[in-house]
Amino acid sequence: MKPFSYERAGSPAEAAAAAVRTPGAKFIAGGTNLLDLMKLEIETPVHLIDVNGLSLDKVEPTPDGALRIGALVRNTDLAADERVRRDYGVLSRALLAGASGQLRNKATTAGNLLQRTRCPYFYDTAQPCNKRRPGSGCAAIGGFSRQLAVIGGSEACIATHPSDMAVAMRVLDAAVETVRPDGAARSIPIAEFHRLPGDTPHIETVLEPGELITAVTLPRPVGGTHIYHKVRDRASYAFALVAVAAVVQPDGSGRVALGGVAHKPWRVEAAEAEMPKGAKAVTAQLLAGAKPTPENAFKLPLVERTLGSVLAEAKG
Amino acid sequence: MKFDTPATTNPIDQLKVIGKPTSRIDGPLKTTGTAPYAYERHDVVPDQVYGYVVGAGIAKGRIASLSVAEAKAVPGVLAVVTHETAGKLGKGKRNAAPLLGGPEIAHYHQAVALVVAESFEQARAAANLVRVEYRKTDGAFDLARAKDAMGDSAEHKKEDSVVGDFAAAFAAAPVKLDETYSTPDETHAMMEPHASIAAWQGDRLTVWTSNQMIDWAATDLAETLKMPKEKVRVISPFVGGGFGGKLFLRADTLLAALGARAAGRPVKVALPRPMMANNTTHRPATIQRVRIGATADGRITAIAHESWSGNLPDGKPETATDQTRLLYAGANRLSGTRLAHLDLPEGNAMRAPGEAPGLMVLEIAMDEMAERLKIDPVEFRILNDTQVDPEKPERPFSQRQLVQCLRTGAERFGWSKRSAEPARMREGRWLVGIGMAAAFRNNLLTKSAARVRLDKRGVVTVETDMTDIGTGSYTIIAQTAAEMMGVGLDRVVVRLGDSSFPASAGSGGQWGANNSTAGVYAACVKLREAVAQKLGFNSADAQFADGQVGSGNRRVPLAQAAGDGELTAEDGIEYGDLDKKAQQSTFGAHFVEVGVDAATAEIRVRRMLAVCAAGRILNPLSARSQVIGAMTMGVGAALMEELAVDTRGGFFVNHDLASYEVPVHADIPHQEVIFLDETDPMSSPMKAKGVGELGLCGVGAAIANAVYNATGVRVRDYPVTLDKLIDRMPPIG
Ligand SMILES: Cc1cc2nc3c(=O)[nH]c(=O)nc-3n(C[C@H](O)[C@H](O)[C@H](O)COP(=O)(O)OP(=O)(O)OC[C@H]3O[C@@H](n4cnc5c(N)ncnc54)[C@H](O)[C@@H]3O)c2cc1C
Ligand code: SF4
What we know:
The structure holds 2 protein chains of 2 kinds. Chain A is built from 11 helices and 11 strands. Chain A is of the alpha+beta class. A 5-stranded antiparallel sheet of chain A has the order 4-5-8-6-7. In chain A, strands 1-3-2 form a 3-stranded parallel sheet, covered by helices on one side. A 3-stranded antiparallel sheet of chain A has the order 9-10-11, with helices on both faces. Chain B starts with a strand and ends in a 22-residue tail after the last helix. By secondary structure, chain B is of the alpha+beta class. Among the domains of chain B are: 168 residues, Aldehyde Oxidoreductase, domain 4 (2-Layer Sandwich), CATH 3.30.365; 235 residues, 2-Layer Sandwich (Aldehyde Oxidoreductase, domain 4), CATH 3.30.365. In chain B, helix 9 runs parallel beside helix 16 and helix 12 runs parallel beside helix 13. Chains A and B meet through helix 11 of A and helix 3 and strand 28 of B. The structure holds flavin-adenine dinucleotide and iron/sulfur cluster. The site of flavin-adenine dinucleotide (FAD) has 29 residues of chain A, from strand 2, helix 6, helix 7 and strand 8.
């Protein structure tokens, strides 16, 4: 770990301003991802801005019937929130499918959205990795890629985004609220929040330097049956091979997003029109243009079959 | 004490303490966090500082340049050890590659430097500033390719064991099987990493470490440092798991010693988790071919088992064919291992080396063969049982209750409810299957010594360099001494894991329990003689019970024998050739029920049963813990554990516990263990054998067979993961 300085921010706007004042500064929330990466010197911030004291830890309804989740709400608290369990069950289930109880107690909403990939080569600093060291190459392409992306990847990177929570938020059409160093706030639709790797896999979101996440807002409840199905080799405490988040209405229409297949939560709205026709039709559009490696080609039939199982479960 | 005739009745047979379920006597230390593990021994020597290891970033080649200037400039850094500064080092005979690499690099993450600093964080930060440039050379990293390159050359078959005419008998057999299987590289993944503190007093060296084999560690450390063994002391009273990963001297110990010498301060070193898979040893991958020929009514006439594995030049093959020489009858037999050169890290022992991967394969082959023969898999095994060594029929087994294990297990598990035809049982979304496998592991005899002291309070203290790697050694040794000296467990103190104590068998190969307690038995026999003599009894008549020694009407408190001081005896067990005259092995049967998600092919174990026949069970509680732990490890081996080899770079890619998955609680459902009544007078005066590895042997195959029974999909390449099933699962929706 490199030496770093540390401060506690007084307000969201101050935190954002402080972050651009010191180049190489980073926010720290639960620290469950950032600290691990700092120990391995994959992240090397020179300055940490602790945002834990910013009172962004409430889940509140908005006047127009949406639900606003503070950036620092812990994953455990969010999963247990009565309104989330009642109206946004897919989110609660996705959260509980992630990590472990201890980690969820620390992990925050914003930190979860911004957690870095679990590509094993990203973690081994002796290996080339464009995400860790831009321009060094990608060791995963042609290497061990069983966990990695099957769609939306590039010549530069085939990593996946590992979050479960973000997949549920994608299916719920959440919006990420931020404040920028100049004090201006904005709201970013989650569909646009995470980026595909392209030739800059080290840039993972549309956040600008210093921009602080203050909340995630879920639009008014859409009803339906909420299912999160995470597929993995062991029963708990493992990242998804694939995950399906779905909201299915009684008439068979609905929405679906995937985890474990791409550099961001994967959703193709056009594919959802096929939902009444079944999993095969939806998957054909959802994964059109997929470019799996020989090691992860199994994810394509796995998505279709998992979705089939989810749709069957929704029918009851 | 020389053990060369079968045991007759002895004080152990009283079974007042031995054989009783006994909670571990070291339990309170562990549950209160006060058991001293190596890295936390802050108290043993002042002024400790921290070492951090730098691992090679290539698999094979040379260091072209090495610069430590930046690292040395970090505040707090006291020393940097590299091959350039370490002085000339030897190599212990149990290490395939040097523990400190350079200029040659033998494998990925081979240690190339140790940075010593006042704080752990300083050492770690500075370690990242050690600049190493490498010149890579090509290496061999792909077992399948190495196997192909070996071809069918006779050179690799020189040491095959051959009985009868396998080829002719196999050709003539009406029913036969010829299949190839594979098992992956696995890492031990024990909870406590390799860790050591080293301190020099002049030319004497003391290390507090975590090691299964104290005497091997002391020998190889002295050898590597080119110093007399008498000047090395190794202390390892508690070991947070090893599974064979701590059988040998490893880099943490050597580098702590070198770092302490360079810094002039005691140095502590732990291997970071991401370094353990490539820096230390692992269970090597195998490719195995099994051929079985049988008569139409199911008698095996020909059986062949060949196994290919790879290793570094001084490394050994994985002995995956050993059990096949002894497990089933059959007149015509062939088995052998073929060793390829690979430049991956050293392959070496991991819990039940040989038999674990060997049975994972053989017991699938037996399942496949039973199916071809249309014979129940349990019955097929029973039909081919043998009570003698099939290679040397004049040698009987000392004890062999395989058939009883199979029958008991089948009955208790409800085997008769299994559908012989696969893919027939369904519960909701789950395809349900049942599988079984035989378990087998040899019983190994090695000498083991101990010292026992009796003090004037009547407390018996046992000292031996035996280790407790979580297995319960403290407790069974205390039980042995209590039984022998006629005192309660509260009157016994056990001190382990110190090279200043008499050398024991150590912990490995499931030999620890039987041999180390037999050594304590021998020392106690000597102490009983000394006590009897002191108190004026004829030692043959003296009874030791309830803290007293007696004969006829006379009873004297045991403590009195110590007088005002202490009475000490030291002895050990040494073995004659009983294990040559009769084959000593342990047997068992595993039964498993799995559910396979009909849509996703996710596999979840639902219940497990192991039946074991393994000599006298010294402590049913800790023995059960050993077996359920081993069964859990078997679930890992069957369903998820695999070190992924990057065959371009020559290393294990998933080298941390986020990416190398082992079972978690949610993977382990109901487990049941049954021990059959058995005593083996050929094994030792304890009449015991081992169970710690037996519990793992065969589990993987039982699971793979259950998956087949559930789905009709036969997977021959471990681990059995959903990607190997998904294309052949039933249609959905
Ligand atoms: C062993 C393990 C297993 C796991 N398994 C899973 C799993 O199965 N599924 C899953 O989804 N996740 C899993 N996780 C990941 C876990 O969910 C994340 O580590 C956690 O959500 C990160 O939240 P945090 O608050 O600790 O973030 P931190 O580590 O504090 O921060 C992460 C990043 O977010 C930035 N950041 C934090 N807050 C803000 C803010 N308000 N505005 C802008 N930037 C901010 C930080 O600068 C940093 O770059 C696992 C983690 C571990 C260690
Ligand atoms: S896939 Fe992405 S994260 Fe993985 S090695 Fe390649 S560039 Fe790095």
